[in-house]
């Protein structure tokens, strides 16, 4: 199957291994991966901050970049995927752009949804011995309703024991620009999240949104906890 890869800003600038492993995984599963070279930021920081007018040029640029073909678009970041899915609602005053946005939004999926629902695969042959906790990001399971797909994939990783923990589905406190504008509240939320997950004494913290992992992982590091933080793409490429 031919697919397009949307790398996201964090994948490009901060977590290149996540981007690499996503592409390698897709190729391993028989996909021909295309990288639209004119892609850029999805505009999520501006959108979340209420700067919709300022974000629209970037939205249009990304829409055009992702119109190279009609193949599925796969992203390793649920928050960016959701942002693109909201484009039509911001372009209602420009019907032609709204129509184009709807077509792009219908084609984009987060990595876990694509693997499970489109490819029909839950076992990719991964192996990672140890205990892990999984953080379901708000964008993935609250906004897009993707709850079981990541768990199905992780349950088939050989040697990996998934541990439940208190408040597993609560927000980590990142919320994009929320963590900057409301830093004290954000800090208390991630402090509580970290405390709860550490009660499970995990070897790994796994998630499907890098931004959440950066936030929780940063807190764990500051507290001196030796927990390895991994995006699900990295886990699924473990052998």
Automatic annotation (TrEMBL):
GO cellular component: cytosol
Species this chain originates from: Mixta intestinalis
One MF term in the entry's GO annotations: oxidoreductase activity
Protein name: Lactate utilization protein A
Name of the gene: lutA
Classification via InterPro entries: Cys_rich_dom (IPR004017)
UniProt xrefs under Pfam families: CCG
Domain (Cysteine-rich): residue spans on this chain: 3-85, 133-216
